[in-house]
Request: fold
Amino acid sequence: MQPSLAPAKKELHFDIKWLIVAAIVALLLIFEVFPLIYLVLRSVFSTGRFSIEAFQRVYSYELNWEAVRNTLVTATLSMFFGIMIAFPLAWLVGRTNLYGKKFFRTLFVMTYMVPPYVGAMAWLRLLNPRVGTLNVFIQKLLGLPQPPFNIYSIGGLVWVLTTFYYPYAFITISRAMEKMDPSLEEASRISGASPLKTLFTVTLPMMTPSIVAAALLVFVSAASCYGIPSIIGAPGQIHTVTTRIIDFVYIGSQEGLTDATTLAVFLMLISNAVLYVSTFVLGRRQYITVSGKSTRPNIVDLGRWRILLTVLVALFSIVIVVIPFVTVAMTSVTVNMGKPLTTSNFTWKFWERIMTRESILHSAKNSLISGTIAATAGIVISLTMAYLLVRTNVKGKRIPDFLITMGSGTPSIVIALALIMTMSGRFGINIYNTLTIMIVAYMIKYMLMGMRTIVSAMAQIHPSLEEASQISGAGWLRVLKDVTIPLIGPSVVAGWFLIFMPSFYELTMSTLLYSTDTKTLGYELFTYQTYHSQQTASALATAILLMVIVVNWILNKLTKGEFSI
Reply:
């Protein structure tokens, strides 16, 4: 028989991984990209045709220009002071024989997982110009005619923003320092350079891209913050862009919504410009000295300075972390805030209130549900994306990675406003006044935390383990379930908590997205602090702080010490 000369038919091969990428992209296009694009278009087509009339009107108000100036000034100063604090601390705990390094590292990052408004409340209790505990103490100690500090000022706002956001820079710089190849530092010391000279001539230049990236992160975080300016700035008539956006939305008119939109576009442009510089400019220069091996740096012996620097770091930790949070806890059991905490001035009634009041319990339930769903859905997408990014060459995988990064870099208030304008039925989707819109907002904002955690863990696993399973006949989904996930389990758990915690106590987006039935714990706490009982607010804040500590302990146990908040 003669062999057939007919050409063999090519089998069509459909890669399901591409379909998964397309599905994630579609989800992000609907709930992130389209709302943000519409927000921009709405600001320049407010009259039905292209016009910058809305921008001209908004920026003709002196109050709005003042808000822009205040935002830029406070964010810039917070960035500067945050880096001035974060870099020395990162170097001391990462490169020296400082006493108690592990303990101090935990304290430094504690505020990272604490709501910003709790930090504002803490410093308000300490530096209130009339009854602030620290103010009154210093006044009596020095015999001053009036308290020395006024928290309701630009300086007070910068101080609180700095103390809350410096951990963002500390974490960024610390991680970069851990990944650096220490051989150049060692070479410098061998050549006779002092540790201080090595720090300024070798370590600091190598760290410059990471320091700048950390600085930009602090800047954007401070500029887009709402909780701190509303609690600290509002009583002192210090307006920022975020507080003005909320004010315009609450007006409830189309003109107010347009004005809010134009301010939001300004904030979005700033944040995305910073994101571009951090990701695409500095990102290419990051970690240029990373070695291919796991190396440990030589620890700098602080010598006779060791005890003094340890004491200074301890004092810093006490003043910045311990005292503020202890003050909040004490306020929660104080009958009269203007008097010392004594037996007659002690009460548990505010704790009983948060444990029994229906509105608070309902808000806590909403926060728990929305946070759990957002974290679970977010970690599924994060895990899938991490696998696609690290283990595959599927086309288009960088698109959802970019979109997730862009969502994380977009200010919370901008995300919320964009969702309000597009998810209220205008375009066929109406999830406004539901928990669903909050879940969507939380996922867009916080999903990157989970994805980066898993990507980092997956990159450290040798692919041969997965290849062995594939050789035996397992598909990629089964390999992911049976091999990859068990190996990176601690990172998956950590990623889930990193999405859940900020979603649980989120304030900024919840302030715009809540309804009567969907109030969250963050908004409930804020209303008590602003309009009702500050002691009740302090009890809620203390409960959240305790929850952070408990979650940290659970996370540490579940991951066998690999991760902690």
